[in-house]
Every structure is written in C-alpha cells, then in structure tokens.
Amino acid sequence: MVRKKEKRKLKDLIPDDHLREEVTRRLYNGDPVVGKDGIFTELLQELVNTSLEGEMDAHLKENNEAENRENRRNGYNKKQVRSRVGSLDVSTPRDRNGNYEPQIVKKWDRELSSGVDDIILSLYAQGQSVRDVQSQLLDLYGVEVSTGVISAVTDRIMPKVTEWQQRTLSACYPIVFLDAIHYKVREEGRVISKAIYTAYGVNVDGERDVLGLYLRESEGARQWGLILEDLKNRGVEDIFIICVDGLTGFKEVIEEIFPKAQVQRCIVHMVRSSTKLISYKYLKAVCRDLRKIYTATDRKQAEMALESFKTNWDQKFPEISKKWEANWDELMGFMDFRKNIRRIIYTTNPVESLHRIMRKVTKTKGAWSNEKGLLKQLYLALERKKKNWNKTAYNWTAIQRELVIHYGERYQQYI
Length: 415
What we know:
Strand order of the largest sheet: 5-4-3-6-7
Shape: elongated
Helix content: 40-55%
Number of strands: 7
Radius of gyration: 31 Å
Distance between the termini: 54 Å
Number of domains: 3
Largest sheet: 5 strands, mixed
Structural class: alpha/beta
C-alpha cells in the first residue's frame, strides 16, 4: 500500500519562530512575494547566509582535525548578489587561516546561479534594448544591474555566434533560399543602412536550417558571390535549386560558383514588381491573368497563357509581358517538377518568414549602436524561435521520391 505524503507545515519549512511570524504577517498584509523587499527574497537571503554559516562550521571542524591546530572565525565579507527573486545581502564568513572557499556563493560571484543571466538573454532576444532590460529587471525582480553588466552578459554569446557562423555544413542542400534584409547601424557618427544576407537551406533529410547571416554594406550580386563561396568553403558541395529575388547579376554569380544549380526566380516578387505601377482599376484583372501563367500545368500551357496575357494587356501595359519574357527560364524552372516541389520553390516566402521573426524583435529599434549588437540580437532571436523555422519540410517523403526520379545518383549519393 502506497503511503500518502505527509503535509508539510509552515513550522517545518521555516523553523525560526520569529521569522515564521514575520512571514505570516507580511503575507496577510499583501506584501510582494518576490522582487525588491519581497517576502521570498528575504527568506532566500536568510537561507543563503545560514548555509554559509553551516559551511564555515563544517570547514573549521575538518580543518582543525586535519591540521591538528586551531582555525577560528575572522569576521565577514559583505556583498550584494543578484538572484532571480531580487538582490540579496550576503555575509560570507572568513577564517583566520584564509583557506575557506565558500560553495553556495563563491568568492568572486555576484550572482546566485545563472538565473539572472538567462533572464537578461531572454529579454534581449525578445528585442529589448540594454536599458529596457535594465528597467525590466528592476521592475519585475527588484534586481539592479548596470548597463555595462548587461552588455557583458550578452557579449558572452559572441563566441557562440562566431562558432555558429563558421560551423561545417552538410555536403548537399537540395533547396536553398537567398534573400537580404536591411537595418540601420551607427558608424563613425553616421547612421547608415546595412544588409543582413540570409542563406536558408533544406538538407537531404528535409531539415531546414539557417546556413548563415552575413552583415554587409549593401545588397549586390558580388556580395552574394562571396557568401556562396563561404558556403562552399564550409563544406557545401552541391545545391540543386536556389530560390532568389530579381537582383541583377544574381544568376551569373550562382552559375559561376554552383554551375549545376538551377536558379528559380521568385514568382511572388515578379508579380509585385509587374503590378507596382498599375492603377487599382486594372489590378485584379491583371493579377488574375498573370496567375494563369504560373499556375499552368506545364511550360507549354504557361507559354499559351502568356500569349493570351499579351493579347489582353500589351496595348495598355506592354512592359509586363516583356519583363516576363526576359526572365522566362528563371521564372518557369519550377514547372519541371511536380506540385510538392513546386509549392516550396516558386517563392522565397520561406526565407521571408524567417525575416519576419527577425523584424518582430527589431521593429522598435531606430538604429543599432554597432554591428555586434545587431548580430547578437538576431542570433538570440533565431535561437529563441528555432522551433518555428527548424521544422522538417512538409511532405518530405514525397519530395524525396521526386528528387530521386529527377536527380538520380546526384541526389542518392548524399542520402
């Protein structure tokens, strides 16, 4: 028969009569439980100091027995320690021999466990500035932390960021999305726009991964070339399909570094740029006829839909059909595949969804004081939301079958 747990009384939890009465009184008064002047903060402070006294008693006993000479107490070192529930006033006992090493709060520690560091990184990952984090810690937990300490805590993740940026990648990524997002950064007294280049890939097992974030002066095909070279240096041997927007010179750079890769231009971007200057009166009709092109069952039907579009709209908007014809091969590449692959590669929306996560935590920022601060916040934001972008691609088993049919040994050697 399983014995029932005995109910623990307040007397068991707080043996000291005076302290127990004080806690009870404050609870009935509705005093705060945690944070500055919180009930639990004072209890924890009492517990820590009592534990340190116990440590010293045990140390003196062991020390005197081992060395056969008397070692005695020699006053206290007082300091303030941060904790999850507020700042604690800790009194660490000293011994005359100077060989006592406190364990619960070590000599140089200014924090009880790593809890406050975790809170700082969590708040920073949600888009809070250093001063916002400082204010939140004081308001919620009663912990006073300087902006310098907060910056130092967030700086500790920079080695992880560097390691992540330089890690070895998989040999093959059937699908890779390339896109850039822009931010304002202060540099030499000026606020300038800089581009974060994002490479987002799907490996042979269907797992999505951010292959890298690269901070550059501006977006351009030459910069993308350097990034593709970096992917190659980190172990990427083959990419089947690279999905991009309409940046000039993109295709040529890709073909130079990954000559076997098929370039798929984003249909959504193309539709937007095609209809950018069209009045609302014609917008729905034009979009409807463009849709007939990219939802066709194959290239032949897509060509017929384009001819029909030209008949209907060339008199009013001749520039639209010319634009589609000039980029036809890059636009229609997805027609070579069945619907499971088509739905993934016809747009760069997957990487834009990743950018939405990044924008959400940075939207309140006017400009970053430096590049390092921007990279830290983006890295922490992506780590925090990893489950949102690191999922296996939808219906990957069916996609794998199609990749085997389409690429044969080129794909099979990597699975």
